[in-house]
Amino acid sequence: xxxxxxxxxxxxxxxxxxxxxxxxxxxxxxxxxxxxxxxxxxxxxxxxxxxxxxxxxxxxxxxxxxxxxxxxxxxxxxxxxxxxxxxxxxxxxxxxxxxxxxxxxxxxxxxxxxxxxxxxxxxxxxxxxxxxxxxxxxxxxxxxxxxxxxxxxxxxxxxxxxxxxxxxxxxxxxxxxxxxxxxxxxxxxxxxxxxxxxxxxxxxxxxxxxxxxxxxxxxxxxxxxxxxxxxxxxxxxxxxxxxxxxxxxxxxxxxxxxxxxxxxxxxxxxxxxxxxxxxxxxxxxxxxxxxxxxxxxxxxxxxxxxxxxxxxxxxxxxxxxxxxxxxxxxxxxxxxxxxxxxxxxxxxxxxxxxxxxxxxxxxxxxxxxxxxxxxxxxxxxxxxxxxxxxxxxxxxxxxxxxxxxxxxxxxxxxxx
Length: 416
Fold this sequence. Notes:
- The structure is a single chain.
- By secondary structure, the chain is of the alpha/beta class.
- The protein is 56% helix and 10% strand.
- It contains 18 helices and eight strands.
- The strands form two sheets. Strands 2-1-3-4 form a four-stranded parallel β-sheet, with helices on both faces. A four-stranded parallel β-sheet has the order 6-5-7-8, with helices on both faces.
- Helix 3 packs antiparallel against helix 12 (253-268) and helix 7 packs parallel to helix 8.
- The longest helix is centred in the middle third of the chain and has 27 residues, at 204-230.
- The two termini are 29 Å apart.
C-alpha cells in the first residue's frame, strides 16, 4: 500500500521466472512487514495500527505454512475456526499483489486459460495466483453467492486446482425464519463435508471461542458508534479497506485489541473542522492519488466506509450457533434490493454527518455499479453531493491517477 511495497515488488519481479525464488522472497517480505506492523501496533497501541497489523497478518498466513481456508469476503470464518483453519480471502490476496504492482502476472495467467478481461480483477488475480502455484497448504475452499455471481464459478476452478471439493453457501436475499433455517442447515452440511475432507472433527470449543471474541468486538463497536460519529478517528483511506477486510475475513483477537484501543483513541481525539466523506464500496489496493487526497492529515476525511458497518446490528448468540451465523449473513443490508442498500448508506451519511459521498465502481463488479443511479438519486434528494468514480481496485494499469485527481478535487471544491 506504499512506495516501499512497490519497491519490494520491483525486486521480486526480477526473479519471477524462478517461481521458487519469487515465492520465497514474497514470503520473506510479508513476514518482515508483518513483524514490523506488529511492533508498530504494540508500541503505538492505537486503533489504526492494530487494524493494519490484523489485515496483513491474514494475508501473510497464506504464505507462512499455516493451514488455511481460501474464502470469499462473506464466508463465515467461524466455521473455519472450528477446524483450526486460518481464513484468507481471494480479495485480500489480489490486493496484496496489487500493492506490490505484481498483479499483472496473476491477471495474465488467468487470462491465458480463457478468463475474460471483463471478469472482476479480484477474481482473475486470485485465480491466477493459484494457477501460478503460489498458494501452499490450502486445506479448504469455501464461498457464498452473496453480492457476486462470479464467486461460485471462479472458486470452483480454484478448488479444482487445489484438489478439493468447493463448499458453497446459498444465501437468500430476505431475513425470515425459513431462510435462517435454510442457511443454518447448509452450515451443518458444510461442517459435515469439511469433517470428511479434513479427516478431523469440528471443534465446538474453538467455534464458541471465536463467537465470543466477535461478540465482544461487535458489542464494543455498537457502544462506541455514537462517539465515533461525533468524533471520527482520522484514518488513511486504505485503512478503511484494512478494517472491512479484517471484520469480514478474520475478526480475531488482533481486531479485539484494535477495538479496545479505539475507546482510548476516541477520548484523545479532538474535533476539527474537516469535510466528512462517506466512502461506498471498495477503493484501490495499490498506492495511488486517492490515498494521497484522503490521507490521515487531509482536510477532507473519509469518516466511514460502507462495508465496515454492514453487520453492526448482528447480535451474536453463541447458544444458537449456526442459526446466529445464518442471521449474520441474512442481516447484511447489501444483500437485499438496491433500496435497502441506499437506506443503509443514508443512515451512515446522516449518523456521521457527512458533507459528501464517493462511490467507487470496481470494473467488472455488477453489484458496485448496478445500483448507482438509484443511490445517487436518493442522495440528490437529500442534497448531499455524490460522486461516482470508475476504476479498478487491483489492476493498477487500468486507471488514470490524473483522472482520479481531477474528478475528486473538483468534487471536493464543490463541497467547500
